[in-house]
Each structure stands twice: as C-alpha cells, then as structure tokens.
C-alpha cells in the first residue's frame, strides 16, 4: 500500500506544458466528461429509439454544457468562494485564468451551480426548438452519471477536494496527512451507483420526467454519504450541528425537490411507452 498511500508525491497534476500554459489532468478529464456525456446520450437515443434526432442531441448537449460550465463557476463563486465580494465587484475576474501574470487555469466549480445552469439551458432550448424538456432531462439523467465519474477522477488527480483525516490502510497522504480518497468515493457513489439506479429504473419508466427525478434523489443520497468522508471547505467548515456540510444541505434540498417533482410527474404527466427489455 506504500505506493498508493504516497501516490500524490509521485504524480504531477500537470499533464504537460505548452510555454506558459500548463494543462492539468483535471482539465483533460473535465473535457472528457463533457464529450463522454454526448456520446453516451447518443448511444441511448439509438438503443432506446428515442424520438430525438441525433443532430438535435449534439446541439442540445453543446448548448447545455456551456451553461454547465458557466453555472458551475458562478455557483462556486456565490456559494464556496472565500472572496465572493471581490468577484461581485470584479465580475470579469470570474473566468480569468491568470493570476499575477501566470496561467493557472480556472479553479473552483460547483456541481449544484452546474445543475442550475443546466436546467435553465434545457428549458430555454426546449422552448426555442419545441421539444419536450422532460425527454431531454431524462436523457441527461442516464447520460451524465458515467461521465461524472471522469470529473471526480480529475479532482483526485488534481489533488483537490481532499478527504478527511483517517487511519484506514487505503488512505493517501496529502501534505503529510493520511486522508480518505473521498474523490474516488464520490466517483463511485455519485457516478457508478447513480448510473445503475437510473439504468434499472428506466425499464419501469411510465412518464417523461421520472428519470431526472430519480437521478436527483439517487445523486443526493450518494453525495450526502460521500460528504462524511470529504474535508469541509476550509472557508465554510460545518454549517449545522457541527457535522453537516454545505454540500449536504444542498443535497437535502435537491432530494426534497426531486421527490416533489416525482410525485408531480406521476400525478400530472402523460404516460409514455415502456422501454422494451
């Protein structure tokens, strides 16, 4: 386990450099996650014979992924950034990849901010091109989880969002302190497990919109559990009861909204054909 526990000391988070530009593994994995979501979405459109042209899927994914990046960054600035006031006073700095004349990339993304941007973009796109927003949301629910795994692996390789102090044998040293590899826990719980839940449920789907509601519930549970192993953001710490983190509060909120959405859909939406096994 020695190599594993000291993996950060033997791994450079920078994949390669081009002059003053440093390309991090996180950036590579983040872009791979976005592209992977498109490929997975198109695969499910074909497999499940969904009534959405593939060119529309491409356009929709590109449109929403731009919104995801915007939402993720702005969400981090508003929720997690220790100097939110500075960014609000200097909004052009939100997407500035330079610090003191050095290219450092854009660091700090919020999943919950990404969700907000994604939802806004989906409903705008659906209204403009007259497609069902619920069909797009269900497609995203089955397409995002596996791609999300790449994002969390990217966090791990970038040595960020580290875990809490531990004494488990599979822990890794971060600045000399043994910690949980919580990014990988999140990749498993919020990625693989959520995908399995949504993938299985899609066989029993009766109404458009059910999958995104199930996704919201499954993700929130996975994130809530994973947060017990993730070090709280230093600028925020625990926000309730000496144990609950901001991520857990937001996860509870999404879980409640997802449950309400599910019952609303069951009560109001029109039934759709069941996917053949």
In words, what does this structure look like?
The protein has 277 residues and is mainly alpha-helical. The protein has one domain (2-203). Helices cover 59% and strands 7% of the residues. The chain is built from nine helices and six strands; from the N terminus they run αββαααββααββααα. It has a two-stranded antiparallel ribbon. Strands 3-4 form a two-stranded antiparallel ribbon. A two-stranded antiparallel sheet has the order 5-6. Strand 1 and strand 2 (21-24) form a beta hairpin. Helix 3 (54-79) packs antiparallel against helix 5. The chain starts with a helix and ends in a 9-residue tail after the last helix. The model has no long low-confidence stretch (mean pLDDT 89).
Quick synopsis:
By secondary structure, this protein is mainly alpha-helical.
Features:
mainly alpha; two-stranded antiparallel ribbon; about 280 residues; globular; two-stranded antiparallel sheet
Please render the helix and strand layout as text.
Blueprint: H1 2-5, E1 14-18, E2 21-24, H2 25-47, H3 54-79, H4 84-89, E3 98-99, E4 102-103, H5 111-129, H6 133-157, E5 172-174, E6 177-179, H7 182-201, H8 210-226, H9 246-268
Antiparallel strand pairs: 1-2, 3-4, 5-6
Helix pairs in contact: 2-3, 2-6, 3-5, 6-7, 6-8, 7-8, 8-9
Distance between the termini: 43 Å
Assess the beta-strand content as a share of residues: 5-15%
Structural class: mainly alpha
Report the total helices: 9
Give the strand order of the largest sheet, numbering strands 1, 2, ... along the chain. 1-2
The topology string of helices and strands comes to HEEHHHEEHHEEHHH
* Contiguous uncertain segments of 5+ residues: none
Number of domains: 1
Largest sheet, strands/sense/barrel = 2 strands, antiparallel
Tell me the Rg in angstroms.
20 Å
Number of strands: 6
Mean pLDDT: 89
Overall morphology: globular
The portion of residues assigned to helices is 55-70%
